[in-house]
Amino acid sequence: MPTEPRIPPQDPALLDERFGKLNVARTIGQNPALLKAWGAFAVYILGPDLSIAPRERELAILRVGWNHQAGYEWAHHVEIARQIGMSEADILAVQHAPAPSHLAELECLILRAADEIKEHSVLSGETWGKLKAHYSDQQMLDLIFTIGQYTMVCIALKSIGVQLEEGFTGLPG
Fold it and tell me: 3-class SS at 83?
């Protein structure tokens, strides 16, 4: 990953306050139409209308961040995971495949789904069937789109060279 931004972050005063002062939004803000479109989708994924539980969402996002070794994404979602009550053991478990022993079956399946999508761009029939024992069609779509959204974000963050804000640390070491 580049050690300097390849696209400079925009002045936060020029951004809509919904996007805050995060470097990811400040950088994407160099293309206002893209920020608006992507921002709406990101708000859906992180918002109350997503049909999977916040813990399940964060397990998926953390696994994607870990799989892509995206320190920016990892750091921010570790903080979100802590805010929703995930333990340090839960966060650490995301780094270990395929099935950390203390996580529930569904949680291990979510990690597996993130792994399969990274590796093959598709869920195996076995993983699909096991997830469907827990999830509705709506939840399956939300899980797959969450994994896809954060895969795209990790690729963009690393390619663009978005740097962590002060006070955040990247991947453990």
Answer: helix
Measured torsion, CA atoms of residues 102, 106, 108, 111, in degrees rounded to the nearest 10? -140
Round to whole Å and give the CA distance between 77 and 84. 10
> CA–CA distance from 128 to each of 24, 65, 116, 136, 140 (Å)?
32, 22, 11, 11, 9
Range of the domain at 149: 52-160
Same domain for 80 and 22: no
Average confidence (pLDDT) over 69-86 = 97
Average pLDDT of the residues of the chain:
93
The enclosing H or E element of 31 equals none
Q: How confident is the model at residue 13 (pLDDT cuts 50, 70, 90)?
A: confident
Domain count along the chain = 2
pTM over 0.90: yes
